[in-house]
Amino acid sequence: MKILHINKYYYLKGGAESVYFNEARLLREHDQQVIPFSMQSPKNLESPYQEYFIENSDFYGAGFNPWKKLKAAGHIIYSFETKKKARTLIVKTKPEIVHLHNIYHQMSPSFLPLLKKEFNLPVVMTAHDYKLVCPNYSCLSHGQVCTKCFKGDYSQIIKNRCHKGSLWSSALLAAEMTLHKKWQIYENNIDVIIAPSKFMKKTLRKGGIKNEIKVLPNFIDLEQFAWDGRPRLGEGLLYVGRLSEEKGLFTLLEALKKLPEKIPLKIVGTGELLENLLQYIGKNGLQKQVSLLGYKQGEELRELIRDCRLLVVPSISYENCPLSLLEAMALGKPVLASRIGGIPELLENDSNLARGALFEAGDALDLAQKIALYYGDEPLLVEWGQKARAYVEIYHSPIKYYQGLMKIYGLAREMTIASARRASQ
User: Fold this and answer.
1) Cα–Cα distance between 38 and 7 in angstroms, integer?
2) Which helix (H) or strand (E) holds 92?
3) What is the rounded average pLDDT for all residues in the chain?
4) How far apart are the first and last CA of the chain?
């Protein structure tokens, strides 16, 4: 099968790209042909199809050049280049199905109608975030969960300056969402949406998405996560992820201050909050307790996970199916995580906390109490680690994901055939 595989970044920028590349590799391992379509960047991995990639477009990286900003703003709403190059690539490669990942802003959905009207292709989209129902991606406004736009009033993002505190960029996102909703560009041109969590599916429904939605959790390549059945307890706390507002890092640092003993914390990742975190750490005398390690990957990251006592996921926004949590579970590492979004689905088992513990999102005191309660309970941590690994092996294996993905591709093809029959009658 030829699969046109689309994501705006063709390098490992974040969790969505990890899923995108892991999925492409999994498909190739099962003798499927994957044809990438993306945006040009000096950071990109090599691809035989890179000549078809669109020009790099970044509104927020345009600086103070008004022409570049105006051009990038128009590109967000409707990109003629994306549409033209997508058509050229499809004519050249003749894919049998299209799988979308993150295409918003830099690519725009301008090419979606031609997938259906011109080529009658089955189209699947993985929802890595909440962009389909929230102009600001995250259902988060100034550190608080927000669903005001679910009713279709996208002026809310302007009133609250939800995006970067900027009136102009918030207005641009409101205009983008308003027009795309008016055109029904996602609703009319996507057969099946993949939700990596039950929570994501429920939230998309609440936001008015009526497309077919199938839940397919992210997978872990277990061969990369060596496991001998004996969890290594390790020492200290570990955070892995972006250094950004929605990740709840200040909740974690506040909790650290409340602990009676000085438990070390390692923070792995990069992002816009780096300077703020450094200032906070210095101001509160946490320099000897907190280590900022920057971006890590591969075996170096896995060894950091093995060496910690607990992985902490302190998010304050609607997480979906975070890979950092799955990777820790694959290594038999117990997790403390916010009770928010799709996280509880990974840690709860019939209302019994079997693979880790949850705390209330944004509640530093609750997190501190959970750390103090569980950090020294070695038998419980070993039990959690063993159950975590067993759970990932059953529910997040590559073969389970591949089988689920093939069923979704089959459904999308059936829906496309049925639609064509209705149109011809």
Assistant:
1) 5
2) helix 80-93
3) 92
4) 29
Superfamily of the domain at 2-132+186-219+398-424: Glycogen Phosphorylase B; (3.40.50.2000)
pLDDT of residue 62: 46
Rounded to whole angstroms, the Cα distance separating 135 from 284 reads 35
Task: Cite the beta strand spans of 87-143 per DSSP E.
Answer: 97-100, 123-126, 140-141
Please, are residues 174 and 157 in contact by the beta-carbon 8 Å criterion?
yes
The DSSP line for 139-191 is SEETTEE--GGGGS-THHHHHTTTTTT-HHHHHHHHHHHHHHHHHTTTTTT-S
The fold for domain 222-395 equals Rossmann fold (3.40.50)
CA-only gyration radius of the chain, Å: 22
Q: Residue 53 corresponds to which tokens in the numbers above?
A: 């990639």
248/30 Cα distance (integer angstroms):
38
Residue positions counted in the chain: 425
Q: How many CB atoms lie within 10 A of CB 352?
A: 7
pLDDT of residue 413: 97
Range(s) of the chain covered by CATH 3.40.50.2000: 2-132+186-219+398-424, 222-395
User: Which tens digit of pLDDT belongs to each residue from 10-30?
Assistant: 999 888 999 999 999 999 999
d(CA 29, CA 159): 48
The C-alpha atoms of residue 14 and residue 7 are separated, in whole angstroms, by 12
Give percent helix, percent strand, percent coil of the chain, each to the nearest 5.
Answer: 45, 15, 40
User: Packing angle between helix 167-183 and helix 66-77, nearest 10 degrees?
Assistant: 30
99 Cβ contact partners less than 8 Å away, ≥ 6 residues apart:
3, 4, 5, 6, 23, 124, 125, 126, 409
